[in-house]
Design a protein that fits this description.
Blueprint lengths: L4 H20 L12 E4 L5 E3 L5 E5 L4 E8 L4 E8 L4 E5 L6 E11 L2 E13 L12 E4 L6 H11 L3 E5 L2 H4 E3 L2 E2 L3 H12 L3 E6 L15 H17 L5 E4 L15 H19 L7 E7 L5 H8 L9 E5 L8 H14 L8 E6 L8 H17 L2 E6 L32 H13 L3 E5 L8 E7 L2 E7 L4 E6 L4 E5 L5 E5 L4 E6 L4 E4 L7 E4 L8 E5 L4 E5 L9 E3 L13 E3 L7 E8 L3 E8 L14 E7 L2 E8 L8 E9 L2 E10 L8 E3 L1 E7 L1
Parallel strand pairs: 2-8, 9-10, 9-18, 10-13, 13-14, 14-15, 15-16, 16-17, 17-18
Antiparallel strand pairs: 1-3, 3-6, 4-5, 4-7, 7-8, 11-12, 19-20, 20-21, 21-26, 22-25, 22-27, 23-24, 23-26, 28-39, 29-32, 30-31, 31-38, 32-37, 33-36, 33-39, 34-35, 34-37
Helix pairs in contact: 2-4, 5-6, 6-7, 7-8, 9-10
Length: 677
C-alpha cells in the first residue's frame, strides 16, 4: 500500500487550525439549521391578479428575508419580515402577471440559518363562462386529486379537461353499471368551474377477454354499452375518444402483430360508433387516438377498412421535440386521411402533446408550449391537449415530469407552477375564441408570424428563435404587445410604424396592421453570440429507415448524456441514408465558428462510431467535411472550423456515418454557431 504522507500532514495541520479557530471564535461556528415551512394561502400559490399574494412562513428565527425573481431571472422584489411566534406573513406583489421564483432565508442573530425556495404564478382574471369556442385542453388523471386540479385548470384558462372514466370502474359486474361519488364529483366539478369533459373511453375489463384487449363479439359490445351508459349518465359529455394509443403494447395487451392491433381497433371503433351514434348523434366520436409511434402502415391498415365512417373526429398524439416540427406529424395524418376520404379532411385533434422537464429546462418547456400550440392551430388542428397538468411523480424522469405544475409532494411546494403554466394561461386568454387566419411570410425561417382574428380584432403571434427585430406598419396611433407571461405594453406608432425586438418567447401583437404589415429590422451585431441547436430545439431533423429497428433514430439511454446532462439521440446501426441535420436560422451574416458536442458517459465509455462525418453547408453549398471519432472524443465540444454564413436558413450541418460496416452507434446532440464580429 502506498501512503501519501504529504496529504496526511496537510490534513493534520488543517484540523489543528480549525480547532483553534473554534476556540477563538466569538460566536458559534455551527448555527443550528432552521427548518422553513411555506404555508400556501392559495392552493399551488397560483393567484388571480386580484388576489392577495400571501405566504405564511413557519420558522424558528428572528426574521426572514426574501427575494422574488421573474421568468427572465431578474430580481423584481425583496424584503424582510420579523418573525413572531415562529410565524411571518409575507405579502409579495410584483405588480406583473406571470411566473415567479421566491427565495426565503431565515436569520438568527444576523446569521443565515436556513433557506427555502418555492414558485408562484399570477394570472389575469378570466371568465370561462363567456368562452364558447376554445381549442385548449388540460390533462388530468383519475387517480389524482381532481378536487384540486380542476380549479387550477380553470385558472389556466383551458375549456376542456381530458381524463378517463374507466370501463373497469363502471362495470364491475356484467351489464351492471355503477357510477360512484368520484365520477359524479368529477363531472360536477367541471361544470361548476365552467369546464367541459373531453373523455377517454378505456381501458381493459377483467370481466371480458381475460382483461386483455376486447376482441370478442361479447367484449366489443360490452365496451360499446359502457360508452352508452357513460353518455346517458353524463349528458354534458360532448366528445369521447374510443380507446387510447392502440398501436403500443401498453394499450393492446394480448396482441402482438400490427395486423392484430389494427383489426382489433377497427372492430372496436365500429362497434362503438354503431351502438352509440344513433342514440347520441350530437356527441363527437373521436377515433384513432394513436401514439406518436404509429407508422403510416398502421394508420393505413385501419383506415382502409373504412374506419373514417365510424368517427366524427380524428385524434393523434405527438411528442416530437422541436415545436415547429409538429407540422411533419400533422401532415402525415392529413395525408392518410385524404388518401381514404376522397382527398378531404375531417376535424383533427392533437389530444396529447407536451414537453417533459426531464429533457427540457422549465424555461424551454414554457416557450415551447405556446410555440407548439400556435404551430398546430396554424396547420389545421382544432383541439390541443397539453400533457400533463400535474407532474406524475417527484422523480425526475421523462414520464413523471411532463406537468405544468408540480407533484403534491414536491420539495418546492404542492401543486406549485412551472413557468409553462403561466405561458399556457397567457395564451388561453389571448386566443380563446380566436380563429387562425394566415401565416405571414416575414423573413421565412427567421421570424414566425401567425395571424388570428377574434371578431374585428387582429392578433398576431410572433417570435424568432435566433432573435431579430421587426417593424410593424399601422394607421393606428399605437399597438398593444402582450409578452409570453401575459403582460401588456402599449407602443406608440412613429411615422406609422412600431418597432420591437423578437426572441424565442412568443408575443401577442394586438391591433390592425396595414400592408406590407411587417418587415424584419436587422439588428447590428456588436458582440459575439452563440446559436445552439439540439434535437429538441431549432432546425433539427432526422432521416431514418423505419423498416429496420436498429436503423431508426431513437432516444439514447438516460446514462448517455448530452451537453446539458440530458438525453441524446442515437441510431444503433446507421444505414447509408441515416442522417441528422442541424439547420441554423442566421439573422446576421458573418463569420461563424461551428462546434459539436459528442454525447458521452465517462463510466460507460459509450460505444460510438469512429468515423462520423459532419458536412458543413454555407448558403446551401457544401464547403467542408470534418470526420470525428465519436468514441475517442466523447464528452467534448469539437471544433468544426469557422465559415462565412449567409442570412437565412440555408446554412446547416449534416451528420452521417462513414464507417464501412456501419456497425457502431451514430450519436447526435447539439451544435453551436458562434458569430465572430
Amino acid at each position: 500500500m502506498k501512503v501519501n504522507y504529504t496529504r496526511g500532514r496537510k490534513m493534520v495541520l488543517s484540523i489543528s487550525l480549525f480547532l483553534i479557530g473554534c476556540l477563538l471564535a466569538p460566536f458559534p461556528l455551527f448555527a443550528q439549521q432552521a427548518s422553513i415551512t411555506i404555508e400556501q394561502k392559495v392552493v399551488g400559490n397560483i393567484f388571480y391578479q386580484s388576489d392577495q399574494k400571501e405566504f405564511v412562513i413557519h420558522v424558528a428565527a428572528d426574521s426572514v428575508e426574501w427575494d422574488c425573481y421573474n421568468f427572465w431571472g431578474q430580481k423584481v422584489l425583496s424584503g424582510k419580515k420579523a418573525v413572531a411566534a415562529d410565524t411571518a406573513l409575507l405579502n409579495v406583489e410584483p405588480g406583473k402577471l406571470g411566473w415567479f421564483k421566491l427565495l426565503i432565508r431565515s436569520k438568527q442573530n444576523s446569521a443565515v440559518t436556513g433557506s427555502k425556495e418555492t414558485s408562484f404564478a399570477i394570472v389575469s382574471n378570466f371568465d370561462l363562462s363567456t368562452v364558447s369556442q376554445s381549442a385548449f385542453t388540460g390533462q388530468t388523471h383519475a387517480w389524482q386529486s381532481t378536487d384540486t386540479l380542476i380549479p387550477i385548470a380553470r385558472k389556466m384558462g383551458v375549456k376542456y379537461v381530458r381524463d378517463a372514466i374507466r370501463w373497469d370502474a363502471v362495470e364491475k359486474q356484467k351489464q351492471v353499471y355503477t357510477f360512484g361519488a368520484k365520477e359524479d364529483n368529477f363531472i360536477a366539478q367541471l361544470a361548476a368551474n365552467n369546464l367541459k369533459p373531453y373523455l377517454v373511453c378505456a381501458l381493459y375489463n377483467p370481466l371480458y377477454d381475460n382483461g386483455k384487449a376486447p376482441v370478442s363479439a361479447e367484449a366489443k359490445l360490452a365496451f360499446a354499452n359502457y360508452v352508452k351508459q357513460l353518455l346517458t349518465k353524463y349528458p354534458s359529455i360532448e366528445n369521447v375518444e374510443i380507446w387510447n394509443e392502440p398501436d403500443i403494447a401498453t394499450f393492446s395487451q394480448g396482441l402482438t402483430t400490427e395486423d392484430q392491433k389494427t383489426t382489433f381497433y377497427y372492430n372496436l371503433l365500429k362497434a362503438s360508433y354503431d351502438e352509440v351514434h344513433p342514440s347520441f348523434p350530437n356527441v363527437k366520436i373521436v377515433g384513432m387516438v394513436v401514439s406518436d409511434l404509429a407508422t403510416e402502415s398502421f394508420l393505413n391498415k385501419i383506415l382502409q377498412k373504412g374506419a373514417l365512417s365510424s368517427m366524427n373526429e380524428y385524434a393523434f398524439h405527438s411528442y416530437i421535440p422541436v415545436s415547429e416540427a409538429i407540422v411533419t406529424d400533422i401532415n402525415k395524418h392529413k395525408n392518410v386521411i385524404k388518401a381514404h376520404n376522397n382527398n378531404n379532411l375531417i376535424p383533427m385533434n392533437l389530444s396529447e402533446t407536451g414537453f417533459t422537464t426531464f429533457t427540457f429546462t422549465e424555461k424551454e418547456q414554457a416557450n415551447n408550449v405556446p410555440r407548439r400550440i400556435v404551430t398546430a392551430l396554424a396547420n389545421g388542428v382544432q383541439k390541443i391537449g397539453i400533457y400533463n397538468l400535474q407532474n406524475k411523480s417527484t422523480v425526475n424522469d421523462s414520464e413523471g415530469a411532463f406537468g405544468l405544475i408540480r407533484h403534491p409532494d414536491d420539495t418546492l411546494g404542492a401543486y406549485t407552477p412551472k413557468p409553462g403554466f403561466a405561458t399556457y394561461a397567457a395564451l388561453t386568454r389571448q386566443l380563446s375564441g380566436a380563429t387562425f387566419a394566415t401565416e405571414e411570410q416575414i423573413s421565412p425561417g427567421l421570424i414566425n408570424a401567425y395571424k388570428f382574428t377574434k371578431g374585428s380584432e387582429e392578433i398576431r403571434v410572433m417570435y424568432s428563435l435566433s432573435g431579430t427585430g421587426v417593424r410593424l406598419f399601422t394607421d393606428a396611433a399605437s399597438l398593444e404587445v402582450v409578452d409570453i407571461m401575459g403582460n401588456s405594453t402599449i407602443y406608440n406608432a412613429v411615422n406609422d410604424t412600431v418597432s420591437i425586438t423578437l426572441d424565442a418567447n412568443p408575443v401577442y401583437i394586438k391591433g390592425v396592421l396595414k400592408a406590407p404589415f411587417a418587415e424584419e429590422k436587422i439588428l447590428p451585431a456588436t458582440a459575439p453570440f452563440s446559436l445552439k441547436y439540439g434535437f429538441y430545439f431549432g432546425g433539427y431533423t432526422e432521416v431514418t429507415q423505419d423498416s429496420i429497428a436498429a436503423a431508426k433514430w431513437i432516444s439514447a439511454i438516460a446514462e448517455i448524456k448530452g451537453h446539458d446532462g440530458k438525453r441524446t439521440r442515437v441510431v444503433a446501426k446507421p444505414a447509408v441514408q441515416s442522417k441528422a441535420t442541424w439547420k441554423a436560422a442566421i439573422t446576421k451574416a458573418g463569420l461563424y465558428n461551428i462546434s459539436v458536442y459528442i454525447p458521452a458517459n465517462a463510466a460507460l465509455n459509450a460505444y460510438s462510431t469512429t468515423k462520423a462525418k459532419y458536412a458543413i453547408f454555407a448558403g446551401g453549398t457544401e464547403v467542408a467535411a470534418v470526420i470525428v471519432d465519436q468514441f475517442k472524443d466523447q464528452g467534448k465540444w469539437i471544433d468544426l472550423g469557422s465559415y462565412q454564413l449567409t442570412r437565412g436558413t440555408n446554412n446547416y450541418v449534416e451528420l452521417t456515418d462513414t464507417l464501412p460496416a456501419h456497425d457502431r452507434p451514430l450519436r447526435a446532440d447539439a451544435l453551436k454557431f458562434t458569430l465572430i464580429p
